[in-house]
Amino acid sequence: VIHLPWPLKCWDYKHEPPCLAGCFGSWGLSATDMTKGLVLGIYSKEKEDDVPPFTSAGQNCDKLTTGKLRGTSNISGPPLKDFPSVVLVGLSIKAAGINEQENWREGKENIRAALAAGCRQIQDPELSSVEVDPCGDTQAAEEGAVLGLYEYDDLKQKKKLAMSAKLYGSGAQEAWPKGVLFACGQKLACHLMETQANEMMPTRFAEIIEKNLKSANSETEVHIRTRSWIEEQAMGSFLSVAKGSDEPPVFLEIHYKGSPNANKPPLVFVGKGITFDSGGISIKASANMDLMRADMGGAATICSGIMSAAKLNLPINITGLAPLCENTPSSKVNKLEDVVRARNGKTIQVDNTDAEGRLILADIILNATTLTGAMDIALGSGATGVFTNLSWLWNKMPLFKHYTRQIVDCQLADVNNVGKYRCAGACTAVAFLREFVTHPKWAHLDTAGMMTNKDEVPYLRKGITGRPTRTLIDFLLRFSQDNA
């Protein structure tokens, strides 16, 4: 099957999302011949009378076929003998680059979305492999291909054929494995978050991270701390959440030591690890509660990011900390207005057991969490909320003392685990966390709005996203370069 973009107006959508051309014809090939597909890119025309330009790879293919890729009449055989299935995908305008106003890499996102759509189209006939046009950015093309093909089907008897994605042509070969690594890091986070809570308990989560990290690099250490260790550390705030479930809590501690100076202070990441969040006594509504299997997205993304940094052999030291437990109702769970004591001695009045993420983090510092529904309301899936006490990040998302006053004005304890008012929930949550941070360089990422995908990110399927793993990997890569 070859998919062609005729009529031409199919491609004349200017800045609209990349689209996929429809089916054009069949070559009468047997199923055994259908082993490999090809995805090529084509740009939208900039003027009404223009012919939509191919990418460099597309131009070469068009020459090889003596123009058959642009032909409108019936063709007697496949235009490229090595590829029984060819898909052309739209990349929007050729000049798309960085949207300075929104700090958005528009060209890269177009490539990811287009390649993902093309690979999925080829995946339908269950081909064994697909080669993809680098489209001017090999890493983005590979990320789109790998993430577009990924679908969680571990628990299904009938699974889609696993399809491998390869680079078509010889351009920018060094960027291809980098794209694989970034995409596979996000895939791991997505897999951890998507897996059902009766399969992905705290102990199982820790075992998977240990296995993956140790295979990534020899310069790693993994410590899976059990309840007795947590009790010895007097982590009363963490344990107050964990005690409602029969699943044992785990404090996961991972280290990557890539710096030539083993004593150099590490970057420290803390990730919220609630493997299922019912809300406790302050129980959530049943609608969409199933998504709370992904409430350990902070732990999943920071662990996957550190694993990817280890595979890249970055010359920095990194520590990852993840308190893992379930938040479920029982006779042992926190009750409203219970007071618990954190590791640093501060007391916390619990006025909402569904504000549990901040309780498990208080005992533990860039931390990432699916912390608040308020962040989803504020930013949706477009961006991660960042709060910081670093001056160079101040313009991104400052911390105002206005919210701190709502937390420390507490009747029974030093701090309250919720703010006084319904509004600004994301801000009061981070104000609470700030009361337990003593380091002068700290930032908090609230990733709740990014946890799921409906149709906002076209190269990801609907459901759990594994975001913002690639952002964390890119941050670590840039940090290592700046501190070389």
Automatic annotation (TrEMBL):
Protein name: Cytosol aminopeptidase
Keywords: Aminopeptidase, Hydrolase, Protease
The UniProt record lists the keyword Transmembrane helix: no
Biological processes per GO annotation: proteolysis
GO cellular component: a single term: cytoplasm
Pfam families on file: Peptidase_M17, Peptidase_M17_N
PANTHER family: CYTOSOL AMINOPEPTIDASE (PTHR11963:SF38), LEUCINE AMINOPEPTIDASE-RELATED (PTHR11963)
Chemical reaction(s) catalysed: S-benzyl-L-cysteinylglycine + H2O = S-benzyl-L-cysteine + glycine; L-cysteinylglycine + H2O = L-cysteine + glycine; an S-substituted L-cysteinylglycine + H2O = an S-substituted L-cysteine + glycine
Gene Ontology MF annotations: manganese ion binding; metalloaminopeptidase activity
Family affiliation: Belongs to the peptidase M17 family.
Classification lineage: Eukaryota, Metazoa, Chordata, Craniata, Vertebrata
Role this protein plays: Cytosolic metallopeptidase that catalyzes the removal of unsubstituted N-terminal hydrophobic amino acids from various peptides. The presence of Zn(2+) ions is essential for the peptidase activity, and the association with other cofactors can modulate the substrate spectificity of the enzyme. For instance, in the presence of Mn(2+), it displays a specific Cys-Gly hydrolyzing activity of Cys-Gly-S-conjugates. Involved in the metabolism of glutathione and in the degradation of glutathione S-conjugates, which may play a role in the control of the cell redox status.
Domain of life, per lineage: Eukaryota
InterPro entries: Leucine_aapep/pepB (IPR011356), Macro_dom-like (IPR043472), Peptidase_M17_C (IPR000819), Peptidase_M17_N (IPR008283)
Domain annotation Cytosol aminopeptidase: ranges: 352-359
PROSITE patterns: CYTOSOL_AP
Organism expressing this protein natively: Colobus angolensis palliatus (Peters' Angolan colobus)
Top-rank EC class of the record's enzyme: hydrolase
Subunit structure: Homohexamer.
